[in-house]
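Example S7 (structure tokens).
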């Protein structure tokens, strides 16, 4: 039988687009499959904040941040905590990715027209020792144009391939099987779904109107993770993170279901580190949802008081923005699936950023005026919309009213006003002098020594109960599903491996389906800004390797 293309790519997210673009540049023909409508091209990257991890970038140097390859690798390995035999390839991928982030990554993107916001963010600050979890320096670079701005050059390259006759786009094609000829996987089969005109991200029809079967010399799996499939998330939830929450919000649409991982396994692929996952602890219900259980993550500055469901402060160093996984573990052992931020209007106005392209119209629209207007605003428009309409927000003029609102929201009288007042007043005393034993106050003062935080991310220390900084605000924070950190095991050429460690002939994987490379490049934890970059790096690697193999 003749081949329908040189390579079939399964999944039209950022990793799939990157792989396809590289294949086109190498002169290969490609069939790009995706179960969703064409309007969802770009996948989850479209909805992202566009954060990218760079090492010793021009943006860092302009902000007087001294970074290095050695420091970044120290941070990555201390964060990942690789400790399993199957971490051989993930560790190799981690070393290769830090090389990429410190070298070719930024100029490669810059040549394609990608630009970056000048202020570098400081995510996942850790709070342990030098060899432990966290970014020692700010490394979170926001794409000018956010997620859509990062997707755009790769989509352009793919569509140029369509115009040149090298790429066939096949949307509404849901893969159900991988087949072999003479030992090599060369056949992709599945169902054709009914056309759908739903808006990007919304649930599309699952009506089957036909079947398909295509053959190619190689197959690249770039189908994403499991974050929209809560049953699968719960089944893979590790004991070390406690009991999975009864209520979870979704940071991704329902079609991010992980089913392609099982199909690849059935064909002989090895799926490793499936118990490693990355869920956010600062999720809020979207007041204007696009998909079911649609949650938005708060990207917080360090000043909010973080309390458990009973109103007790989370332990050191579980401050806002310091250790996502450590916070998740603590929460899930508390007996409740939610926590609280308690703060005031002054803090929310400067320190709350909402993750997602649609929540940042100024950056997404590349509007300098919009960015300046945000900086001047008492509270940015997207944040104010949640204050006005968000189901998880309580805004009151005094503490007794705030506590009543918090207990009414959860329908449990778990917050005692006297206990909460004692906690806040004790914290407030610590900002009235230049000395402190409160390590969160120390962290706030330390953050403000960095120009980027002082300008746009960290408010000057002040009393939470200061009437001039009010009104008071409480935000109920939910667990928000997001990323799989495990995936299909791959070698450094993105070839999918089998249980005995040999390549599965004809099959490659990239993006979240490959744990962003190797089957788990992040180990147990992520440094942030590394998911999109992992899609780019692994997609580029898979595309180039498959092009070489089919040449």
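Recovered sequence:
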């Amino acid at each position: 039988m003749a081949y329908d293309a040189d390579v079939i790519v399964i999944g039209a997210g950022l990793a799939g687009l990157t792989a396809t673009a590289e294949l086109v540049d190498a002169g290969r023909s490609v069939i790009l499959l995706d179960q969703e409508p064409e309007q969802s091209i770009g996948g989850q990257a479209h909805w992202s904040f566009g954060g990218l991890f760079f090492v010793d970038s021009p943006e860092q140097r302009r902000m007087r941040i001294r970074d290095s390859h050695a420091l970044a690798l120290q941070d990555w390995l201390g964060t990942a905590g690789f400790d399993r035999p199957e971490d051989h390839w993930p560790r190799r991928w981690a070393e290769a990715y830090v090389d990429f982030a410190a070298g070719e990554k930024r100029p490669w993107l810059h040549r394609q027209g990608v630009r970056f916001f000048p202020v570098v963010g400081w995510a996942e600050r850790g709070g342990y020792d030098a060899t432990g979890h966290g970014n020692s320096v700010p490394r979170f670079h926001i794409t000018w144009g956010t997620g859509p701005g990062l997707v755009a050059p790769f989509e352009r390259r793919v569509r140029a391939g369509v115009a040149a006759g090298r790429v066939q786009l096949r949307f509404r094609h849901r893969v159900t099987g991988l087949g072999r000829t003479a030992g090599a996987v060369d056949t992709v089969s599945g169902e054709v779904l009914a056309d759908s005109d739903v808006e990007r991200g919304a649930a599309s029809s699952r009506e089957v109107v036909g079947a398909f079967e295509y053959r190619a010399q190689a197959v690249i799996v770039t189908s994403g993770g499991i974050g929209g499939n809560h049953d699968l998330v719960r089944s893979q939830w590790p004991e070390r993170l406690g009991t999975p929450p009864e209520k979870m919000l979704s940071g991704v649409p329902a079609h991010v279901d992980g089913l392609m991982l099982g199909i690849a396994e059935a064909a002989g692929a090895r799926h490793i580190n499936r118990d490693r996952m990355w869920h956010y602890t600062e999720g809020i219900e979207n007041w204007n949802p696009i998909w079911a259980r649609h949650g938005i993550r708060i990207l917080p500055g360090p000043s909010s008081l973080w309390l458990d469901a009973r109103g007790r402060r989370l332990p050191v160093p579980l401050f806002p923005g310091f250790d996502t996984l450590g916070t998740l573990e603590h929460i899930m052992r508390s007996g409740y699936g939610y926590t609280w931020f308690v703060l005031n209007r002054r803090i929310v106005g400067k320190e709350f950023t909402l993750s997602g392209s649609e929540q940042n119209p100024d950056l997404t629209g590349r509007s300098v005026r919009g960015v300046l207007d945000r900086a001047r605003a008492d509270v940015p428009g997207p944040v104010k919309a949640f204050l006005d309409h968000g189901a998880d927000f309580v805004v009151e003029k005094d503490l007794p009213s705030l506590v009543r609102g918090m207990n009414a929201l959860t329908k449990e009288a778990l917050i005692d006003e006297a206990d909460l007042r004692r906690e806040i007043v004790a914290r407030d005393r610590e900002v009235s002098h230049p000395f402190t034993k409160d390590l969160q106050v120390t962290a706030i003062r330390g953050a403000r020594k960095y120009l980027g935080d002082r300008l746009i991310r960290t408010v000057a220390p002040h009393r939470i109960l200061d009437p001039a900084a009010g009104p008071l605000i409480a935000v109920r924070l939910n667990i928000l599903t997001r990323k799989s950190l495990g995936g299909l095991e791959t070698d450094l050429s993105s070839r999918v491996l089998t249980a005995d460690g040999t390549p599965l002939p004809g099959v490659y994987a990239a993006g979240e389906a490959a744990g962003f490379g190797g089957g788990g490049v992040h180990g147990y934890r992520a440094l942030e800004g590394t998911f999109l970059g992992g899609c780019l790096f692994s997609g580029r690697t898979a595309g180039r390797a498959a092009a070489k193999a089919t040449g």
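Notes on this example. Residues 353 and 536 are 25 Å apart (CA to CA).
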